Amino acid sequence: MKHIYHLSTCNTCKKIIDAFGPLTDVTLQDLKQTHISEKELDELATITVSYESLFNRRSRLYTSEGLANKDLSEQDYKSYILSHYTFLKRPVFIVDNEIFIGNSKDTIEALKQKLL
User: Fold this and answer.
1) Residue 103 and residue 38: Cα distance in Å, rounded?
2) Looking at residue 35, what DSSP letter applies?
3) How far apart are CA 103 and CA 37, in angstroms?
4) For the residues of 38-70, what is the DSSP string, one character each?
5) For residue 55, how many other CB atoms are within 10 A of its CB?
6) Dist CA 58 CA 20 (whole Å)
7) Model pTM score
8) Which of 109, 112, 52, 113 has its CA nearest to residue 81?
């Protein structure tokens, strides 16, 4: 099973998805259109072992709400991600129960190795 959480309006997400060419057997979930559910988020956190690893610290809301100055708990990370799509680090690829989060070079290279 392959599932990709992304934003269709994000050029970085588009570029990464396009780099893998036409993907078969993939479910694309545009987070603006279909927000991540609590069940889906819990499943991702089970794979990664934390909500914090799924949390996007580059979000404009993260800065504007002063979250950098707060000591956030796992429950806080979960609540923020569920409250607004921008708090989920993107893209998130699920491939055969392995998770690849974000757009770092290492993450994309590991994903490429998994898919090839």
Assistant:
1) 23
2) P
3) 22
4) HHHHHHHHHHHS-SGGGB-TT-HHHHHTTGGGS
5) 21
6) 25
7) 0.91
8) 52
End-to-end CA distance of the chain: 15
Task: Say if residues 99 and 45 touch (Cβ distance below 8 Å).
Answer: no
Find how far residue 30's CA is from the centre of its chain.
11
* Encoded amino acid at 9, one letter: T
Q: What percent of the chain has pLDDT over 90?
A: 84
Q: Which two tokens stand for residue 24?
A: 């078969």
pLDDT tens digits along 15-38: 999 998 787 889 999 999 999 999
Tell me which amino acid residue 51 is: Y
As given in the structure block, the two tokens for residue 57 are: 């610290």
**For residue range 88-109, what is the model confidence (pLDDT) as tens digits?**
999 999 999 899 999 999 999 9
